[in-house]
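Note to self: the last two entries modelled the partners one at a time, which told us nothing about the interface. This time every component goes in together.
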Amino acid sequence: MKTNNKIILTCLVAAPLLLMNSCTKLDENVYDQLISDNFYNNKNEVLSAVLRPYTHANAWVTPSGQDGWWRPSELSADQLAWPTKGKHGEDGGKWKRLHYHSWLSDDGPLNNAWSLMYWGMGLCNDPIENLEKRDISKMGITQVEKDAYIAELKLLRAFHYLKLMDLFGNIPVVTKVGTPAKPATMPRKDVFNFIEKEIKDNIAKAPLHSKAMTGRMSQAGGYAMLVELYLNAEVWTGTARWDDCIAAADKLISGAAGGQNGAMALDPNIFDQFKSTNDLSKEAIFSIAYEYRQAVFEPSWTGEFYHFQQGPIYGGTRNGNDGVVVIPGVFTTYSDSDLRKRGWLLEGPMVRFDNGQPNIASGGNEYSGSQVVFVDNIRKNKIGSTVSNMSEGEENSGVRFNKYKLGNSVPGIVNGVPVPIDPNYNNTDWNIYRLTWIYFAKAEALMRKNGGVANAEALTLINTCKQRAFAPADFVPYTAATLTYDELLAERGREFIFEGFRRDDLIRFGKFTTASWWDHVPSASFRNLFPIPQVQRTLNVNLAQNPGYN
Amino acid sequence: MVLHLSQARNPLIIIDGIPGGNLDLLQQDDIESFSILKDGSAAAIYGTRANAGVIIITTKKGKVGPSRFDYNSYVRTERLVKRPDFMNATQLRERIKSGEYVIPDLGGDFNYFYDLINDDNLSHNHNLAVSGGSQTANYRVSGNYRDIQGFAKENSRREYGLRLSLTQRGLKDRLTAQFNVAANFNNANRLGGGGWENVLTKNPTESYFKPDGSPLFTRTITNEIARLSLEKNRLQQQTSSVDGKLTLEIIPGLTGSVFAAHQRDWTISSEYRDKNSQNSLEDSNAPGGGYAARATGLSQNFNVEPTLDYSKSFGKHKVSGLAGYMYRYEVNEGFNANNRGYVNDLFEDNNMGSVPVVVNRIGIGSNKNDNTLIAGFARGFYSYDDKYILTATIRREGSSRFGANNKWATFPGVSGAWNVTQENFMKDVRWVNNLKLRLGYGETGNSGFANYASLVTLGGGGIYLFPTGEYLQTYGPNRNPNPNIRWERKQETNFGIDFTVLDNKLSGSIELYNRVTKDLLDTYTSPQPPFIVSSINTNVGTISARGIEITLGYLAVKNENFTWDIDFTGSTTRNRLDRYSNDEYKRDLKTFGGIGGFGALGDAIRTYEGRDLGEFWGKRFAGFTPDGKWTFYNRNNEVVSNAQINTSTFRDQTDLAVIGNAIPKYYLSLTNNFRYKAFDLRVFLRSKLDYDILNTMAISYGNKNGAGTNLLNSTFTKYAAIKDTYMYSDYYIERGSFLKVDEVTLGYTFKLKGVRNLRAYVTGQNLWTITGYTGNDPDFVADTGLGPGIDSRSPYPSTRQFLFGVNFGF
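The predicted structure of the combined assembly is written out below.
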């Protein structure tokens, strides 16, 4: 028995000790996620990392329904607003703060914009670092491909900084993931110089624009960024760069930067830029490319613009949150003969695409059970109120977005003619830069150089664009006498409505903080920049606040 | 009590000395006793899993003697307490007629709320246990069948359970082997039980059906009634646990034991939506095709725990020691698929390959992750004459979840007790029967957050156009790695007095505790740049809970025919976010409690560094303007419009103020047990006092501005003045305090020959609530966790439950 005891004792003591030796390992096993050390093994993996920032850019550069770059750029300006409509849209007062220019230095939506944009920037930094440190033989790509990917990513990173600088001015510039831990504010002028140098250093190594570069940053996107930089250089750095702006624009106009569909040119039809096959546009420079049938990657702006029952108007299935509307009076700045008026905006009673019958609202709001009618005013018509401000909207308030079209997913009838299902339904790309915008920028630079007077070339540029919006009989070309700065600003508004540039335009024309529109009165000049989000400043003591904010 | 920021955690269940039990596998009838381990120092030996407390359960065992049969059964039904006070068709018509509300009268009179309720619900439960034992072995086997019919239609669960326990001793009682097997199989119907908000807010003059009887679908709002007949949502689950423990007395005083356990939880969920269901008809990718989904999941854990135990007495000195090792591996995996466009409703989710795969219709996914927890632990115990008791524990614990440098941490615990009544000077103090003072300190760690937080991982970023023209998945970093992430540490100090006085009639304990959780694991905002994504899992801040709990038991009457005893517990705790910054990360606030509903009203609760948890921060209502617009006080107490209110998070700028606290200050309960001859009666009262609730139902449905739905009757009385949009302010903060008659049970025990035990009883639960709160049942509003105090817009109706049962044993 004694021996037995000893054996048992030995076993009992030894067993745990043996276990201890072998079982103190605490490695993590990863089954369903990738670790970056194991990635970049072939061209497809490389591409999947290079293209990651583009899907992210959908979130911040397009009106995606998130607080990114687009909302503060448009909803603080004189064309668009998101008024409270009945029970909807108070949303913590954030739309009013944008409209009234009363945003706070700890405004959540502005921090969200900062966060999303720097996130995208980080998604460029990461593959740049990984590509630079890896050998091409291990990645299955050529040196030329590697250089082109890095150049493309550096241009795309510069694009993130360009838009960050646009909103926030003085910002930290970081080109490595994680370092420095607390990057300091860089003055706007230096940020400008960094962006300009990055573009110039990399543009030649980036691919020319082509079909294969659809939805990506190419040399064309690079030159468009330079056009934007130089067009706003006077505001952003204090030094005008009109000749540089014209030179960069000419690279695009001449086709030297490539084209998405053959030689770059203006689309003859003003609606071609915005339809479901707009990837075939000749004037596309840089866009976010959507594809629904194969990729289920669809435009995300419907939430922002569409009424709760907007889908049936187009024979589509997508509806929205009844959010962004056109500020009263903007609709009537388009003449009735302007094809853009009804082509890009929705006003009046709405009918269904599939059967031509009235489109009926449902969902328990003011006009549930009645036809959807969009009106060029923002007030409570249902109770006969004439008070018009950011708080007093209702379900049908305001003229609506109609610029981009998704196509129809059900057959319908338009003017008595049957229309089959659009095979490209929901594929519509979102333009970040298009050639029309370059034409306008060059024309403006020519005018600015010329003391505010449009020379013949500037007139041609603008008239070439504008004539597409009129039947030949209705078109009245601009002359040097009619194309004033004010008129140019107004025409820019009509042409680029919803495209995200309005705040910049108002700032460049000196109106952003000094003009009044609808429910907005002049604010203070420091509001030309948004504040550095306070959350970021508490996390990083090296960030300085912009002047005027505390 | 709130002890963590990262996620709610469950207490450790110890069943028959075996940690990590699953309450699903336990039937009430199998439980012998149930207690909660309060002392942090005592919990320290159990380590991280005891971080949220320890519940100790002893199950019934076979006993020496003749074999026994026990049968227990009950039937139960649930009855509605009250329907939220929305207008009926008649009331709505009055408001339309008076011009107070403009909404179409569609001619009908419907109250679909009642059509979601299963009026005839009757649940029953049966449990049969057989047990027996000899000097060297005992066994108990119990089987359980339960059929739960929900209060809501299409909401039920049927389950079968089995529990087997066997203990055998050998080697002259020096070796004990103990085995438990428990399994539970259940099938649940999960389709119903929701949709309350939709039916309440539906225009009561409008039918869900067309004149021909077919359902009416309006795209924006779910037809809750048609859904119940056109969709299916089922869950099958099998949970099982097998464990065994061998204990050997090696030499007198020294025992060694090895415990091993395996638990397994396996689920299949099945969903199908008919071709003519609303969801199928309104789907844009496969309109009019059926929808099927199936998901399976398997969670398993494996445990091994060898220990050595030594104890010895030397006269009045008693010492004992324990040393052990624990290994626990947990692995979870799952698979799911869904597809649309099924051309018949026959296969449901049983033949999902029967239609072609189309990109926009199909969804497929799978996942797997695991983690390992390892610990070594030791405990020493010393007592002198049962008067002075000292215990010290130490546990070294490691988790795979932490960064390479911080996987391991050490957690000590120490406690002492003084049995005052054992002292000579107490001998003459006759009225004190027992008095014990306890003081303890213990630390436990928390590793309760997602796996892989310390690694750089890449995640799918959505599909994009590749230069080949194909659309393929993109990949990029999806989290900020934190290789420094480490254990969260809870330090708990307890002081307790246990007493029995007045001829053993009054007993009780007073417990003072201070729980400080340091290095809080939380998802924290990360500075961008240089970090890529906006949050990082890290250790920041300190949270504390300090309070007192009093438990009293009083034997009021005891004689041959009548006994009456009273149990009371009361507690109060102060929860505070002491710090929410460290050297690296500086923030002073976290917000909780999403208000939800229309108008995106944001979070109701702001917790600032140095302030109590659960504080509502909002606008202070100052009245309505003559035209019904909100006005509020700003920080200078001036009356201003909503647009002029500064909602900043800076405390020196904001116009928002503390307008309430959602965590009850006091929790009280009182149980009275009476026994008169063969009758027994139990009355259980429960109360939460001194706290606030945000009445979200009133915010959203007590406001006619912009509304086109059915509304609360109070819209036109109490809230008639509002002619403005939805607003969060102290206007909607109400006192939540309540007293509830939670349970009354009346039983009768029969004395019959040959029958060991026969008792019949009736129980009523949730019988009566006294409260000033005007929203839903305040007891249903969360009062713990991080976003407490927000009432629901779609409350599961409060019900009274009535139960009739018998216990029968021979």
